[in-house]
Design goal:
Its EC number is 4.1.2.13. It is an enzyme of class 4 (lyase). By secondary structure, the protein is α/β, with parallel strands linked by helices. The chain folds into 2 domains: about 80 residues, no CATH class; about 30 residues, no CATH class. It contains 4 helices and 3 strands. Strands 1-2-3 form a 3-stranded parallel β-sheet, with no helix packed on it. Strand 2, helix 2 and strand 3 form a beta-alpha-beta unit. Helix 1 crosses helix 2 and helix 3 packs antiparallel against helix 4. It is elongated, with a radius of gyration of 17 Å. The termini are far apart.
Length: about 110
């Protein structure tokens, strides 16, 4: 079916596939998350889509682990990562809403 969408100009933004709602699978490995994410993408996303942008709502450590594992997978798309949540979490934790922690928060923001 042709919906006249310029697929090669499309940027797909997704979250990695995780199992937060299923307690039996709550602690799956980042590699398994990558496998499920990319097998779903391969079966559902047309090859004409050139870029996939991954975002994540997991903890900082979980997100970094998932993104590191994803980098090792050979994908037909360009893959980019959205690190805003990681950077904000670290910055807000360092800042704690106190003026005297501003320098520490800035250092945390730029440390990756």
């Amino acid at each position: 079916m042709d919906h006249e969408v310029f697929l090669s100009g499309t940027l797909l933004i997704i979250n990695p596939i995780t199992y937060r709602s299923t307690s039996l699978l709550a602690n799956v490995s980042p590699r398994l998350v990558c496998g499920y994410t990319f097998s779903t993408l391969k079966s559902r996303v047309p090859e004409e889509v050139h870029a996939v942008f991954l975002s994540s709502r997991q903890s900082q450590q979980e997100t970094l682990s998932i993104f590191t594992a994803i980098q090792s997978i050979k994908a037909s798309w360009q893959v980019s990562f959205y690190f805003k949540n990681i950077m904000l979490d670290r910055t807000l934790t360092a800042w704690k809403g106190k003026e005297e922690n501003t320098v520490t928060a800035k250092e945390a923001f730029f440390r990756m």
